[in-house]
Inverse folding.
C-alpha cells in the first residue's frame, strides 16, 4: 500500500509515467482552444474512484468545457484524458463508458419515461425486455415507478431531473457526469436533491463529477472541489481546505463571505506574520509560503471568525465603532468601522444575542479574533 | 360587490367575442371567395351537361363522371366496362408526384439539415440562396430545364466532354425528366418546413443519445427523425399535392406520352375542343384523392399526438 501511494505521488510529478489504473479520471495537460480563444489553459487533475468530485467556478470559467471533454462532446486540443488507465480522448462519446446528466435534462420527448431510461441499456445490447425490467428497477430507485408510462412533458422539473438521473445511471457507467443538474430547481427541492444525490453516490459507489457555480452546493456535497476561473484551476482540495485555507484572492472571494483587507507584511517570525492594515492597526496571522516581509497582499478573515466585545479579548483585538446591523435570519451581520482603517463585516449567530455580543449602531467596541484566524492570500 | 365584478367580467368577454367575430370577417370573406366558391362552382359544373364549343348547358347530368370511369363503346350503347385511360393517367400522376416527392426529400432533407446546423448568423443567407431561383417565373424555369436536359444541351455536352458517356443520354420526354422538373419546381417547399423543424430541434438530445451509446445512425433514426417528423410530413405534402396537379413540367419535359392529370384538366378548358363538365369532374376526383391522403396524414398525426399526450 505505501508503495502504491508513493507511485501515485510520483506519478503526479512525472507526466511521462504510465497513468495509474486506480484513478477514475486522469486529465493531463488538457488544453481547449476555440480559434484564438483559449477556454482551458493546461489543466491537470486526478479524480479517484468512488469520489464525489466537483468542478466549481463562475460561468465561463471552463468547468462545463472540461466536463464535455470528458464526455466526448468537445475534442481535446492538446493533452490526454484517461479513464481507469485507458486513454479516451480520441473515442467518440458513444464509445465512452461514462454517462451524463444534462443541465436541461435532454429527455427524449417522444418516448415514455420507461423507454427513456431503457434507451442506454438497449444501446448496450440488452434485449428489450431485459432493458425494460432493469429500467423499471432504476425508476424504483428514484421513486418514479408510477410515472413509467408517462411522457417527459407530463412530469414536473424535479421529476424530470430524477428521470435524467435514472437514465444516466441505468447503464452502470464507470463515471457519472453531472452538468449543473440542480440549477433549474427551486431552493427547497435543490436542497433535498443535494442530499439525495450524495446518498445515491455513496450507495452506487460510482464516481460523480459534478459541475456547479453554486459554492454552497459544492461545499455541501463534495469530497473534493476544484475551483476554476478563466480556464485555470485556482485550487484543488477538500471543502474544508478550500473554505478555511483559500490559496488566493479569487478562491477566498468566490467561496463564502469574507473580509478582504489590503495589508503589508511587517515581520515574519516563528511561523507567524505580522501585518498592518492602515490606521495603525496590526494583525498577526499564519505565515504563508511565498509571501515574504514587505509584501503588499490581501488578508482574508471570515466574518464568523470575528466577535465583538466591550473590552479587548485575548488574541487579536481592534478598536472600532458599529455602523450597521443587518438581520439575516440565523445570523446578524454587523458592519464595523475601524478608526482610519477598513470596514469589517462581523457575523454573529442569532442565538448569541443574549451573550451581549450585539451592539447598537454608534457604539464603540472591540472586534476580536483568535490568533491566526486571518489568512494571507497570493494574488 | 362580488356579483357586480362577475357580471362586469362576463360583459367584457361578450365584447371580446363580438369584436373577434368582426375582426375575423375579412378572413371569412377571403376564404369564401377564393376557396369555397371556386370549389362549389367546380362541383356544380361537374354535374352539368357539356356545350360543344366549351361552356355548359344548365341541365343535370352524370355524363362527366360516367365518361371518367366507364367505357360504353364508341356510340355509348355497349355494356359499361371500366374505362382505364383516365384511371391510368391518375395512377401515373400519383406515381410521378410520389417519385418527385421522394427525390425532393432525398435532396431537401440534407440541405435543410445543413442549413439548420450552420451558425445562426449565416442561416438566413443560405435560405435566401435556396429561394433565389424561385423569383423567376415557373414557365421560364421549366423551359430552361428543357434546354439544359435536351440531347444537344449543356448537360449532355458536359458529360460527353468529360468522357463519361459516348452518346447523349436521352432525358427529355421521359418520366425521369418530369420528376426532375417537378422536383426542381417544388424543392423549397420541402426544404423550408424541414429547416424550421431542425432549427427548433434541441441538439442536446443528440448528445444525450450519443452519451447513451447510440451511434450517429441510430441517433438519427430513433431521436432526430421522430422529433422533426411534422416538418418532414409538411414538406412531403407541400411537394406532393402541387406535383399531382401540375401541368407545366409534364407538358414541357414529358412530351405526349407522359400526360398527367394537370394536363388532362387543362385541356378540357382550353379553346373549343374542351369539355368543361368532364374537366370539372376530373378536378373533383383529384380533389377527393388529395383530401383522402391529407386526412390519413392528419389522423396519424393526431394519433401520434394523443400517444404523446
Amino acid at each position: 500500500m505505501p508503495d502504491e501511494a508513493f507511485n501515485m505521488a510520483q506519478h503526479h510529478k512525472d507526466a511521462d509515467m504510465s497513468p495509474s489504473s486506480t484513478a477514475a479520471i486522469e486529465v493531463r495537460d488538457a488544453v481547449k482552444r476555440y480559434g484564438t480563444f483559449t477556454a482551458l489553459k493546461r489543466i491537470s487533475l486526478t479524480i479517484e474512484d468512488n469520489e464525489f468530485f466537483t468542478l466549481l467556478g463562475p460561468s465561463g470559467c471552463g468547468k462545463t468545457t472540461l466536463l464535455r471533454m470528458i464526455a466526448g462532446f468537445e475534442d481535446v486540443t492538446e493533452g490526454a484524458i484517461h479513464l481507469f488507465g485507458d486513454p479516451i480522448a480520441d473515442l467518440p462519446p458513444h464509445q465512452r463508458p461514462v454517462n451524463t446528466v444534462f443541465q436541461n435534462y435532454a429527455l427524449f420527448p417522444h418516448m415514455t419515461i420507461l423507454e427513456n431510461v431503457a434507451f442506454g441499456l438497449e444501446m448496450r445490447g440488452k434485449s428489450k425486455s431485459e432493458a425494460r425490467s432493469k429500467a423499471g428497477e432504476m425508476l424504483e430507485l428514484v421513486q418514479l415507478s408510477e410515472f413509467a408510462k408517462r411522457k417527459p412533458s407530463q412530469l414536473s422539473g424535479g421529476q424530470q431531473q430524477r428521470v435524467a438521473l435514472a437514465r444516466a445511471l441505468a447503464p452502470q457507467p464507470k463515471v457519472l457526469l453531472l452538468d449543473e443538474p440542480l440549477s433549474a430547481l427551486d431552493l427547497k427541492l435543490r436542497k433535498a436533491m443535494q442530499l439525495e444525490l450524495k446518498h445515491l453516490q455513496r450507495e452506487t459507489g460510482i464516481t460523480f463529477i459534478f459541475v456547479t457555480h453554486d459554492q454552497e452546493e459544492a461545499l455541501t456535497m463534495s469530497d473534493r472541489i476544484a475551483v476554476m476561473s478563466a480556464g485555470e484551476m485556482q485550487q484543488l482540495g477538500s471543502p474544508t481546505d478550500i473554505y478555511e485555507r483559500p490559496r488566493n484572492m479569487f478562491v477566498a472571494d468566490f467561496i463564502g463571505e469574507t473580509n478582504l483587507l489590503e495589508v503589508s507584511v511587517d515581520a515574519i517570525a516563528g511561523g507567524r506574520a505580522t501585518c498592518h492594515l492602515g490606521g495603525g492597526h496590526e494583525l498577526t496571522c499564519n505565515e504563508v509560503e511565498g509571501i515574504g516581509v514587505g509584501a503588499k497582499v490581501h488578508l482574508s478573515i471570515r466574518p464568523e471568525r470575528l466577535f465583538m466585545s466591550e473590552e479587548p479579548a485575548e488574541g487579536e483585538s481592534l478598536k472600532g465603532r458599529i455602523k450597521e446591523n443587518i438581520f439575516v435570519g440565523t445570523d446578524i451581520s454587523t458592519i464595523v468601522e475601524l478608526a482610519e482603517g477598513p470596514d469589517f463585516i462581523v457575523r454573529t449567530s442569532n442565538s448569541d444575542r443574549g451573550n451581549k455580543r450585539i451592539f447598537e449602531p454608534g457604539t464603540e467596541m472591540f472586534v476580536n479574533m483568535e490568533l491566526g484566524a486571518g489568512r494571507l492570500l497570493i494574488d | 360587490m362580488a356579483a357586480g365584478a362577475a357580471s362586469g367580467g362576463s360583459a367584457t368577454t361578450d365584447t371580446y367575442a363580438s369584436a373577434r367575430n368582426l375582426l375575423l370577417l375579412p378572413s371569412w370573406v377571403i376564404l369564401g371567395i377564393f376557396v369555397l366558391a371556386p370549389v362549389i362552382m367546380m362541383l356544380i359544373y361537374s354535374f352539368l351537361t357539356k356545350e360543344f364549343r366549351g361552356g355548359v348547358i344548365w341541365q343535370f347530368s352524370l355524363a362527366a363522371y360516367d365518361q371518367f370511369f366507364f367505357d360504353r363503346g364508341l356510340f355509348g350503347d355497349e355494356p359499361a366496362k371500366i374505362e382505364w385511360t383516365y384511371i391510368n393517367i391518375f395512377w401515373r400522376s400519383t406515381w410521378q408526384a410520389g417519385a418527385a416527392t421522394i427525390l425532393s426529400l432525398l435532396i431537401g432533407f440534407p440541405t435543410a439539415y445543413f442549413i439548420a446546423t450552420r451558425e445562426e448568423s449565416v442561416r438566413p443567407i443560405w435560405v435566401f440562396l435556396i429561394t433565389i431561383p424561385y423569383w423567376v417565373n415557373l414557365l421560364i424555369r421549366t423551359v430552361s430545364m428543357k434546354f439544359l436536359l435536351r440531347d444537344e444541351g449543356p448537360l449532355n455536352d458536359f458529360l460527353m466532354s468529360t468522357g463519361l458517356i459516348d452518346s447523349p443520354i436521352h432525358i427529355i420526354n421521359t418520366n425521369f425528366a418530369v420528376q426532375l422538373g417537378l422536383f426542381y419546381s417544388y424543392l423549397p417547399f420541402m426544404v423550408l418546413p424541414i429547416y424550421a423543424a431542425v432549427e427548433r430541434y434541441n441538439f442536446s438530445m443528440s448528445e444525450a443519445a450519443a452519451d447513451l451509446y447510440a451511434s450517429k445512425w441510430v441517433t438519427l433514426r430513433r431521436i432526430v427523425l421522430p422529433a422533426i417528423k411534422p416538418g418532414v410530413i409538411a414538406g412531403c405534402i407541400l411537394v406532393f399535392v402541387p406535383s399531382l396537379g401540375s401541368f407545366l413540367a409534364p407538358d414541357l419535359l414529358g412530351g405526349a406520352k407522359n400526360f398527367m392529370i394537370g394536363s388532362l384538366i387543362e385541356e378540357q378548358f382550353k379553346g373549343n375542343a374542351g369539355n368543361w363538365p368532364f374537366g370539372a369532374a376530373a378536378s373533383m376526383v383529384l380533389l377527393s384523392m388529395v383530401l383522402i391522403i391529407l386526412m390519413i396524414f392528419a389522423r396519424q398525426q393526431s394519433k401520434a399526438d394523443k400517444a404523446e399526450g
About this structure: Chain B is about 70% helix and 5% strand. Residues 89-268 of chain B form a domain with the MetI-like fold fold (CATH 1.10.3720.10). The beta strands of chain B are 48-50, 56-60, 70-71, 81-82.
